[in-house]
Amino acid sequence: MAAPSSEITNVGDALEGLVHQFADPWAFLRELIQNAIDAGSPQIDVRIDHDAGRGAMSIEVADAGEGMTREIIDTRLTRLFSSAKEGDYTKIGKFGIGFVSVFAIDPELICVDTGRAGEWWRVVFRRDRTFERIRLHDPVEGTTVRLYKAAKATEVEEARERARATLAYWCKHVKVELRLDDELVSGPMDIDGLCKVTHEEEGTALVMAIVHEAEALRGYYHGGLTLHEERDGSLPFIAYKIDSRFLEHTLTRDNVIRDENYAKAMTIVQQVARGPLMDRVFAALERIAGGEAVAPEVRERLYQCAEAPFNDQYAAPRWLAAPIVPTLGGPPVAMKTLRERARAKPVLCATAMSPLVAAMLADKYTVVGCSSHDAIDTLVYTATAAWSTPITNWCTALPLAPAEVESWAPLCAAMRALIKVRGYKVREVTIGRFDYPESAIAGRVAITQARFGECTPIAEVGQLASGWLASGRVLVLSASHPTLLHLRAVATREPELAAYLAIKSFFLHGELSSTTDAELASAAAEARWRRMDG
User: Fold this and answer.
1) Based on C-alpha coordinates, what's the Rg of the chain?
2) Which of 237, 243, 440, 486 has a Cα-to-Cα distance from 396 of 20 to 30 A?
3) How far apart are CA 100 and CA 432, in angstroms?
4) Which keywords label this protein (predicted)?
5) What are the C-alpha distances in Å from 361 to residues 55, 328, 365, 367, 386?
6) 352: DSSP letter
7) Could you tell me if 431 and 405 are in contact, meaning their C-beta atoms sit under 8 angstroms apart?
8) Using one digit for the tens of pLDDT, what is the confidence trace for 30-70?
9) Distance between CA 510 and CA 499 in Å, rounded?
10) Using CA atoms in the order 325, 330, 336, 341, what is the torsion angle rounded to 10 degrees?
């Protein structure tokens, strides 16, 4: 007896909803691939052909699985459809829900050839959703689904690209050999990144790596089929793909169900990220700190990732003891060692060895090989609760050869005499070099130091004091400054004028009052007059 028309309408509407259940019409390929995998097929071939004469496109999905008997066809494949001979709708079967999506691209005809246990069948579905079952006499291996649709040559190429994109997203990690027009689509679950680690346990496989994007890839799969892929920053710079029995897709296939089973899968992710992955990161950093050459961006990214465990407070003791912090003039040190040293003296940072760095090392400072506030310096902060102090907060002056110093004698003598008249406490005026790596005084005319060649804080290089209680300082001129090079030549003829201009240039780095300038000018003029008169 035929079903009432209202029931037919309701079921028919439900059927149309299932036809368009997925946002992408070409997602029907994913459903056919999943059916083939469930049938145990070791390989699946997808082929798209064009019959120019008929103006028709055919899409074929062929597998070598166990196939279907008539009972399976009747109870699982066709339960959503109206039989052309029986004329009724029946209950929804699990197998048929995904298969219904083949109608999403509006084919004129769908043909399913299948066989099992010595019986072989062809099921033909028409555009109006009716079907006909035909017994075949020739053997059929597995199941082959063909869709036929009117199409121009350009439409066929567009269809091929859509099919390629669909399979590349949903089926790229299926554990069978999947081909599209003889081109291999499937491949192992993998990630292109640093310190890659794989993990397997019952029902779960995971691959994880360090990448350059803070919002990294999270890929969720079940049986090799994509459930969902997204990007977020919950584990910065850590990308992963996980295939797990704990993961299931939503009904619309547009996300992964985030329930207690999902939480179990994420626990595995956290354990690998906090364990094996970090072990590899720290092992790589030990090699880098020991001199292994890597690209700057790789170095920066790995040091950034090394900071994360300590911020989350689950750092393993072995990481604290790993010598990953590069130093200048010595071997790499562990964060634990750095913490201990920082209690005695502040940790410094510099990017290159220099006479100043050597002097600070001789004074028992630790100099980390990094720039201020970069990823390595962040580790310093994590270990010591203080940022490292840049080496540019200090300076020094380098000695010249005696013969070169002699050529500066007239200018130095005239400057000392003029400064003494002004009442400043200067024990000596001499010449030095300021041109060493990371020099903070390379452009200065002169600096003052308590002793020539010491490590002087930058805040003190402009100091000149007067009075009975003031300590005398050494005024060091820059041997390479163009102004002084010119004044050196002037000093052979007019030492007082050269000395006045040189002292004025020094004071320009600080405050030169009109009173001081006038006093220096008067003292220079008087000294010149006495020299000329004598």
Assistant:
1) 40
2) 486
3) 87
4) ATP-binding, Nucleotide-binding
5) 82, 9, 5, 7, 19
6) S
7) yes
8) 999 999 998 999 999 999 999 999 999 999 999 999 999 99
9) 18
10) -120
Residue 443 φ/ψ region, left for φ over 0, alpha for ψ in the -120 to 50 degree band, beta for the rest: alpha
- Spatial separation of the C-alpha atoms in residues 426 and 419, rounded to whole Å: 7
Helix (H) or strand (E) holding 99: helix 94-99
CB 431 within 8 A of CB 412: yes
Q: φ and ψ at 305, to 5 degrees?
A: -70, -30
Is the torsion defined by CA of 254, 259, 265, 266 positive or negative?
A: positive
Q: Residue written as tokens 């584990």? A: 235
Q: Is the pLDDT of residue 314 over 90?
A: no
- DSSP-assigned states of every residue in 267-327: HHHHHHIIIIIHHHHHHHHHHHHTT----HHHHHHHHHHHHHHHHHT---HHHHTSEEE-B
C-beta of residue 523 within 8 angstroms of C-beta of residue 516: no
What is the rounded average pLDDT of the residues 194-218? 96
Read off the pTM: 0.79
Angle between helices 296-312 and 375-384 (to 10 degrees): 30
Question: What distance in Å separates the CA atoms of residue 39 and residue 23, rounded to the nearest whole number?
Answer: 26
Rounded Cα distance between 139 and 98, Å, is 26
| DSSP-derived 3-state class of residue 66 | coil
Tell me the mean pLDDT in the region 209-213. Answer: 95
In terms of C-beta density within 10 A (0-12 exposed, 13-18 middle, 19 or more buried), how is residue 523 classed? buried
| pLDDT at residue 316, rounded to an integer | 82
